[in-house]
Every structure is written in structure tokens, then in C-alpha cells.
Amino acid sequence: MKVTYIHHSCFLAETESCYYLFDYFKGELPELDPQKPILVLASHKHADHYHPSVFSLLKDMGMEQIHAVLSRDISGRTVPKDIPLLSVSSRRTYSLPQGQTLSTFLSTDKGVAFLIRDKEECFYHAGDLNDWVWEEESDSYNRQMTGSYRKEIDTLAQDLDGTKLTAAFVVLDPRQENDYARGMLYFLKKISCDRIYPMHYWEQPEIITRFLTEYPQYQNRILLTEPTDAK
Hints:
Elements: E1 2-7, E2 10-14, E3 19-22, E4 38-42, H1 53-60, E5 66-71, E6 85-88, E7 93-95, E8 101-106, E9 112-118, E10 121-125, H2 139-160, E11 167-171, H3 182-190, E12 196-199, H4 206-214
Helix pairs in contact: 2-3
């Protein structure tokens, strides 16, 4: 599987059967094979995860087979009528157009996270599913957040049943300050995957370098998505 980082939480994953474009709201796409199907997946309606301009962009690029897979909180009216739409809810399993399987998980913020099985490939996109602990929140809020996050990751681990992910796209958000690594660390503990792409870092890729400095035991599993000047 080929993976291209686009921007923020947006990645383009290419398998033998099709392209998968996750959480696009802006950014330059690489050259694509216009005859290869592309699935546009949006985990929720927040402006940094979805913009309907993605469909006109792909049409302008000549893409002939575009399918939309959107969290149910996104209005179907944002999708052109000539593009097939699958609206998805959390904790469900769906069949995708080329015979792939999609499982969804409940976000700890909004919408869903995605697990896709495409023949021999199996990959995960977190959306905004993360351990959103904040210093300014109460202890009870933070305990509940951690419990909710870990429940979903435990469910993901049960769903995988020992299957190793080909790739995973996981939140690493510097706004959480000293708690920035909580979600990533639990994911690394519970899920088998050697290609983990940090995302949602608000144009601060140096947070990845910080993580690798503080947790060097994960250097063979965490990928730098873009250059950083951090030392």
C-alpha cells in the first residue's frame, strides 16, 4: 500500500483495488489514475476534516469513479447527486463498492473512526478518536475521556483479533501539552502496526520528533509525515 500525506489529518492511501482519501479539507493531491476508483472518507463535519470542494477537485482531475463515505453528521446535500454516497454510523460494519469491508468506531469528539479491510491490506484512520485529556478540564471529565478512548481502542483490538495493521493514522496533538502522547501510547500498546502516521498536529511536525525523543523505543513504528527542523 502506498501512503501520501496531504495535510493535517488527510492522507491518500492507494491499494491494488482503489484510492482512499481520508478527511480532506485542503491540500494538493498527487497525480492520480483517473480510471481507478477513489473513496472519499470523512470522519466528521469539523472544518479541519471535511470540505465538499473535494468532489469538484477530483472531477477536475478527471477521476471517473468517485464514491463518498461520510459520517452521518455530515449532510448528504454536500455531495453532488451523481456521486454515490454511503452515510455511516459508529460501531457498524459496511460493504464498500469494490468488495472491501469498513468497520466504524465511536469518536471521543465527533463522528467515527475507520477500519478498512481491502484484500490483504487492513488499515485504520482515527478521525478525532483520541484521548482528549486537557489540563483545564476536571479530573472526572478526563477520567471519563480516557475510559471512553480506551474502550474504543480495546474494541478495535478485539475486532482485529491479532491481525497486524498495514498502516494506521493516529492523532498526536501538541495542544494537549504534557498529555499530547496519551492516545498514541495506548494505541501503540494495544494495536500491532509497524507503519503509524501521526496526524492532527496543526502544522507542528516537530511534535513527532519530540515523541520519538521521549519514547525512542517506538522509532521503528512511527513515521515522519513531513520534514521538521526540530532537533
